[in-house]
Amino acid sequence: MLDVSGMHVSYGQSEVLHGLGFNVDRGEIIAIMGRNGMGKTTLMKALMGIVPTREGKVDIDGTDITQMKSFQRVKQGIAYVPQGRMIFSTMTVQENIETGLFVRGTPSIPPDIYELFPVLSEMKARRGGNLSGGQQQQLAIARALATGPKVLLLDEPTEGIQPSIIRDLARTLRHIRDERGLSIVVSEQVLSFALDIADRVFVIENGRLVHEDNRADIDEAKIAGFLAV
Amino acid sequence: MFSDYSLGDLGSILAMQGFAGLILFSVFVLMALGLAIIFGQMGVINMAHGEFMILGAYVTYLCSELFTNYLPALYNGYFPVAIVAAFCASGALGLLVEWVLIRHLYRRPLDTLLATWGLSLILQQVYRSIFGAREVGVELPDWMLGSTHLTDTIEVPINGIIVMCITTAITVAVYLLIFRSGWGKRVRAVMSNRTMAGAVGIDTERVDRMTFGIGCGIAGIAGSAFTMVGSTSPTAGQLYIVDTFLVVVFGGAQSLLGTIASAFTISQAQSTLEFFTSGSNAKVLTLLTVVAILMVRPQGLFTVKVRR
C-alpha cells in the first residue's frame, strides 16, 4: 500500500533522515518507535509533503507521490493526524470535520464518523479550540478519516492523553483498521501502546531504521533498550 | 465649541454629520473588509489596496462616459453595471498581482509591504498617464441626485442612502461567503492553520488567489461607491488607505463584526468632530483615542475567545 525507499530528508544543509525504507501492507498497523529528536516527526511530515523529500521515493498504491504537494497526497489517499492535533481552533467541531470532505467532494459527514466518536456528535456546534486534549485528538482523527484515506499517519497520538483514553484510542484505531481495511502508520514513544496495536514495530535512531520486529516475535526488552535515555 | 448653536440646531447638525459619517463608514467598511480578508488569510498587508479602490472608481467613470456617449437612453441604469464592472476589473487585477507578485513573497511580511507599496506607486502613475492628473467626476443620473428632508432642518442625500444599501448588501454577502459557503470554510481553515489545511486536502494556493481576488474586487466596489461622494484622482486612494488600516487594527484583524464596529466608531468620530473643529484636528483626536484604546486592548475591539 505504502512503499518508502531510500528516503533522504534535510532541513537546509543538515540531513535528518538518511535513506529510510519500509513498506506497509493493506490493513496493517506499523509503529515507528524512537526517542525525541530521532526523526519520527520529520518522517511523518515528509510523508505528508510538509517537508520536501530530497532523495528517494514514496509510492502509494503504485502511484509515485514523492514530489506531490500535501493536498495532492491527500487526494491519493494519505491522511495525517499531526503531533499536537492542530485542529482548526476557531471553527466548530462539525466544520473541522467538513474541511476533510472537500477532497472527496462528499457534501455531508458520513454517519460512521460520528458513530466512531459519539462525543464529537454531542459537541458538533462547539469551537474546536474549546475541546479537551483527548476530544481534540478524536476530532483530529475524525477529520483525517473524512478524507477517505487508504493510509492514516498518526504522529505521537498518545502525547498528553490520560492512560484510560489511550486504551480507548488503541481500540478505536484497531476498529477503524478492521472496518475500513486501511493501513496505519503511528509514531510513538509509549511502548505499551505500540505493542497493543502494531502488527510490526520499527525503531528509528538518528534518522535510520535500526530494528524491526513482527508482532509475533517482538523483543520487548530490546526495544525498551532503544527507547531508554 | 457648542455654545454658538441652539439645542435644536445642534441636534440637526449631529444627525446630518452623523449621516455624512455613515457614508464615510460605508467606504471604510468596504475597503476594510477586503483588507481584513486578505490580511487574515495570508498575512499580507496590501499597501496598494487604495489603488484597487481607485481602479474601481475609474471603471465607474469609464462606464458613465460609455453610457453617456453610446447608450444615453439607458443612462439611468449605468450604475449597477458599473459596480459589476468595477468588481470584475479590480478582482482580475488582484488575481494577476497575486500570481505575478504576491505568491512569491508569502511568509515575508516586510517584503510584501514594500512590494505592494511599489505597486501602488506604479498604479498611480498608470492612472496619471491614462486618465490625467486632474480629478474626474461622474455624472449621476437624476434619480440618484437630490436629498430627502426628514424634518425641516435635517436632510439626507439620496446617493448616501444608496451607498449604504450597497455596503450593507456587500457585507451580508461577505458574511455568507465566509461563514456559510464551502469557499469560506476553506478560507477559515487556511487562516487557522495553513500547513494543516494543506494536509486535510485543501489547495491553499488556490484559496489564496481567490481570496486576494475577492478582497481586491470588494475594494473595486468601494471605488464605485466612492465616486458618488468624492472625486476620483490618481492619488485619492492613498488618502483612505491609512484610515482603513486604522479600522482593521482597531477592530481586531480576525473579526468581521469588529471591523464594522471600528469603522463605525472612527468614521462617526471623524465626521462629527470635523464639523466642530477642523479636519486635521478631527484626525488628531481620533488617532489619539484609537492609540489610547489600543494600548489597553492591543488585540483590538473584538476577538474570538478560544483556547490557544
Describe the structure.
The complex is a heterodimer of chains A (229) and B (308). With 229 residues, chain A is of the alpha/beta class. Chain A has a single domain, classed as P-loop containing nucleotide triphosphate hydrolases (Rossmann fold, 3-Layer(aba) Sandwich), CATH 3.40.50. Chain A is built from nine helices and ten strands. A six-stranded mixed beta sheet of chain A has the order 6-7-8-3-9-10, with helices on both faces. A four-stranded antiparallel beta sheet of chain A has the order 2-1-4-5, covered by helices on one side. Chain B is mainly α and 308 residues long. In chain B, 73% of the residues lie in helices and 2% in strands. Chain B contains eleven helices and two strands; from the N terminus they run ααααββααααααα. Classes of the chains: A alpha/beta (229), B mainly alpha (308). Chains A and B meet through helix 2 and helix 6 of A and helix 6 and helix 7 of B.
Topology:
The complex is a heterodimer of chains A (229) and B (308).
Chain A: E1 2-11, E2 14-24, E3 29-33, H1 40-48, E4 55-60, E5 63-64, H2 70-76, E6 78-81, H3 93-98, H4 111-116, H5 118-122, H6 133-146, E7 151-155, H7 163-180, E8 183-188, H8 191-197, E9 200-205, E10 208-214, H9 220-227
Parallel strand pairs in A: 3-8, 3-9, 6-7, 7-8
Antiparallel strand pairs in A: 1-2, 1-4, 4-5, 9-10
Chain B: H1 7-42, H2 49-70, H3 78-100, H4 109-131, E1 147-149, E2 155-157, H5 158-180, H6 182-192, H7 194-199, H8 204-229, H9 236-251, H10 256-276, H11 279-296
Antiparallel strand pairs in B: 1-2
Low-confidence stretches of chain A: none
Largest sheet of chain A: 6 strands, mixed
Whole-number average pLDDT of chain A? 90
- Overall spatial form of chain A: globular
Determine the structural class of chain B based on helices, strands and strand pairing. mainly alpha
Do you know the CATH architecture of chain A?
A: 3-Layer(aba) Sandwich
Characterize the main sheet of chain B. 2 strands, antiparallel
Distance between the termini of chain A: 34 Å
Largest interface: A-B, 31 and 23 residues
DSSP E strands of chain A, number: 10
